[in-house]
Each structure stands twice: as structure tokens, then as C-alpha cells.
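Progress report, Aim 2. The chain analyzed during this reporting quarter is listed below.
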Amino acid sequence: MWRRKINGWDFQPFSCRGEKKDMLQVYTGNGKGKTTAAIGLAIRALGAGKRVYIMQFMKSLAYSEQEVLKGFAPQLCLETSGKPFFIAEEGMLTEEERKEWGKDVVVFPKGNPPADYVRLMENGLQRAEQEALEGKYDIIILDEINVALAFDLISRAALENLLEKIPPDAEIVCTGRKAPKWLVDRADLVTDMREVRHYYQKGILARKGIEN
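Predicted C-alpha cells for the chain:
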């Protein structure tokens, strides 16, 4: 296919011929904006008349965007699978950070996450699978599933099973830090958001309407 340069950038025109339909996108990396990018994609898809399903893992209904998304459009379904606290493996947080988080974080030994939280994540994935297999959604967003995988809250086999069953016309988006190599290798699109600078290093915590 022919290509052309515009202002020094090399472009290849889109083509519908031979287009792969069941696309897998992965948004990962330490930089801020992975969930934000997925929500932006959802809004664009809705504007094009598509139907969107979002399952947010490791999150309760405590984020500002959820207030809008829950009633934004009948073509959008948002569900969550999480508790009103964060979890972290031993060694991930300094003593200062643990004191700062207080009851808002649950620390567990590496490779041994809380059983009730594992069940919660598994139920969330089963729910996402049920919705996906109905075939009524064009975009399926599994928000923070990469982190759930990294914490062994969801198994590789369980997610691969879902990916194998996704209807051929659906697009699936997996977000979160620490996306596993096997998922990255499988994806059609991978965005790695690199953190260049973040104000949390100055002690500025999550702000309403910006981070939560």
C-alpha cells in the first residue's frame, strides 16, 4: 500500500480491505492516563453509534467519571468489581506510605492475595464474559485488569479464555500498569504511557476531578 509524508510524518491511509475485526488494545505503563484514554475511546465509540461495556476491576463506585458514565447513554454499561480500598504486595510501599494510606490500603504477601478479593475479581471477569458473549457490545473495556493479573487476582488462563470467546466484531481494551508480556505480544495495539514527571513526587495526593 502506498504511503505519503505530511509535515515530515509518514502516513499510511486506512483501508477496510482485509481489516482485522476482533482487535485487542492494551494501555499500560507507569504514566497517568490509561483509564482516561479508555474512557475517551468509549465516548468516541458512542458518538459513532457503537455500544460500550466497561468493567472496572479493583475499583468501587468512588471515582468522579463514574457519576457521568452511569447515566451517560443507554448504549453504555458501566460496572465495577472492587472494594473501597487499595491493595498492595509486601515491599511495594514504604513505611511512610503505609502510614499515609492507613486503612485505605490492604497489604498482602506476594503471591498470596486475599481470597475474598480474588473471588471478587473472578466474579467481575465472569460478569464481563457474560456481557461480552451476548454480542450486544462493540467495545469491551476491562479497566485495570492488567494490575489484577500482576497481583494474581485473575489468572492468565481465565483472561485468555475470555479473549478466545470474544465475538469477532468486538474490540477489547485492557488497561493498567504491568501488562504481562503474553498480553502485550497478543495485542494489536499497545500504548505504554511513560511517566516523565508527576506531582505526587512533591507530596500532592489524588485530587477530586483529576485523579478520582
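Helices lie at 34-47, 64-69, 95-101, 115-133, 145-150, 156-165, 181-186. The two ends are 44 Å apart (CA to CA). These observations will guide the mutagenesis work planned for the next reporting period.
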